[in-house]
Amino acid sequence: MPATIIEREFTREADCCAAVAWWNYWDHEHVDVLHDTSYVDMQVLYEDRRMAVVLHTFRVPLFRFLKSQSISTMIMEDAETLRLYNVGLFAIPSLTTIRIREDRPDHCVFTMNYKFVLRGWRKLLAPLLGRLIARWNAQVWEEDLPLKLRRQKMLRHGFRDFVGMPERIADRGQAGPLEFKLPLARVPDSPVNAFRQRLEAGK
Length: 203
Known about the structure:
The chain has helices spanning 18-26, 31-34, 126-156, 194-201; strands spanning 4-14, 39-47, 51-60, 63-78, 81-87, 93-104, 107-118. By secondary structure, it is α+β, with helices and mostly antiparallel strands. It has a 7-stranded antiparallel beta sheet. The longest helix has 31 residues, at 126-156. The radius of gyration is 18 Å and the shape is globular.
């Protein structure tokens, strides 16, 4: 029998530039801190200038006392499109497509499309899965939005990662396009690197 594909799409807007919006998706360090009701741990297994392979440990929906894992491959397809291929709970494969369009300065339209492929007994999950996707998307969006807006404000005031604010108040301004470049810089002992470092060290 053919597989059942559950698809949901959501459109949202935020007062931030595309560089900030993409930073939020690729900033793996914030996930298990800001979204701690859903995620327990986040580990980056591989990353380069356009992709990352990430291992998530998360709480099972509806049964928060249980934990499971999923593995995701994130690919920056072009300047406006991210595709995320995931195999997660119950070995259900999914494809998430994120499109971010900066329709005017420091304002973006987000289109988030989710497709889950259900086979065999997993088809029984179809009605529940559709509702869970909507709830999960709304929760993550609300948790992330203040982070986007705060970073947008700080970057426009001249903040730079690992440097801070300009000393002189007169220098605290940043006009024009803001930069986004992969992979994002992080401190060498960042917890999201821990598992990869152990694998590479053979420990």
